[in-house]
């Protein structure tokens, strides 16, 4: 289902940065627009600035510069109205362990000035497979169930934007799949979803658009399909029987590199391309009597992609 676009972004971030008193620059000047009804994934390694950006948008951390509007409400000048639009599922558990699931969810709803509406709370608990745990104390629940309670709390006041900060970090595969299904259901109702993750497959499974952040810098924002093409890069290492000092000219079109002091040839290719070039490369190696003893293919890591993006940004700036 395509995102539901409004006449203006439901969330607009302009020049938002954060430098702490210690001098640590956690976030550079970030510009970002999120459309109503889309699923946006902020992809980056631990410490990249994902949580800092979310905490600033949600009013937990004060920015050093910049402005944020949530459905037209400035997060500083009109903080309460802006925060009412937002639900946040943090990484860390932040609940009273002695309270029941139902009491915790109801309290979160009242905290935002929304009374009653038990039917809505009931549906949220059912959607999260918490219905039969409603009278259980949170301390009695498994880790996965506690994570579901955090989501129930975040949804209790019917927010239009839901932030999920590393929602599946450390959870089992079943909960991860359930969470993906829930996210898609919420989007179908028009909820805007923004999630942070360092799992490429999570972004691939859920997002309409993906932003890549590293060391506090938003490196790019692209449609998922375009980014996945970049992530389609693969490497094949060819372990040679005899080391090589120079790559023969006949192999130039594959743009190979010599690794491991000449003991390996590395070929980088697009795994999603119709023709990878591997069969013709292997035939040419045979024609040149270049013997090899092993082949090993691997997917580019997220770190590799970040290195490439940072290098490209530096070239642009030069």
UniProtKB/TrEMBL annotation:
PROSITE patterns: ABC_TRANSPORTER_1, ABC_TRANSPORTER_2. CDD domains: ABC_DR_subfamily_A (cd03230). Pfam families: ABC_tran. Residues 11-240 form the ABC transporter domain. Keywords: ATP-binding, Nucleotide-binding, Transport. InterPro entries: AAA+_ATPase (IPR003593), ABC_transporter-like_ATP-bd (IPR003439), ABC_transporter-like_CS (IPR017871), ABC_transporter_ATP-binding (IPR050763), P-loop_NTPase (IPR027417). One of its GO terms (molecular function) is ATP binding. This is ABC transporter ATP-binding protein.
